[in-house]
Amino acid sequence: MKRILTITTTLLLLGTASLSAAKPVKIVLWQDGAPTKNGHENTEEKWNGPRVSEVSVPELWIYPAKKPNGQAVICAPGGGYKYLSTDNEGKMLVDWMNTQGITFAILKYRVPNGHPEVPLEDGRQAISIMREKASEFGVNPDEIGIMGCSAGGHFAATLATMHGEERFRPDFEILLYPVISMTDITHTGSRNHLLGDNPTPEMIEKYSLENRVDSRTPPAFIVLASDDKTVDPLNTIYYVEKLQKNKIPYSLHIYPDGGHGFGFRDTNPYKAQWSGELERWLRSIRK
After folding, report:
1. pTM to 2 decimal places
2. How far apart are the first and last CA of the chain?
3. Residue 260 has pLDDT above 90, yes or no
């Protein structure tokens, strides 16, 4: 697979983003409670428009494709590990993914609240559930990827690089303007909510995911803007450097503007380009 750095591409007319009218199949991740507590177990979820925080009951919202092509994508919305932006980094993608034949799932995961094991637990469980139920949705259990935006990108890359057992390994990863490192280039809010206000050097090293890339890391598709003032683009550059060293296929797309948090909004000037590249990439890795 070729490694691609895209600054501009041919414009593709893909239509406008809309929130899908389809209702998802909702599956609770932990029927008997999660292994690690995050401190929100006895609180109610807080919704502020499309944002949800203090998730105590994590769920997988599955939107099956009407004509499945075998692929599935589990998406972790961003929100600095404090809340989840479930619309522009979740629901707005449903129709587009389903149109490609891809079963799309939004992961309403627990924010770590200083318990860094929590995201990886929820990610592994989500992959397990999707693989167990693959046949119900016309999904190939060997074509299930993880997607994440911003801090959700750190969530996704954590699963991609720290999955452990093979059954938890996603088959590919899609990262939008991801937080990767916990070093001085990190998004401070994401680090504080993941590791606490005074993380040890060992914790910083462990959860700086550029350090976790190895030969078992899945292929990656990455999109960001070089003018991102929220998450330093060096997060991605360091991650890609390690993908390159470990000979992991990747498709990298850096655009000159767009800032941070654009998700699938039509206001992003390069939406048609990057989504067109993603469509081609997903087609290219189909089995």
Report:
1. 0.93
2. 14
3. yes
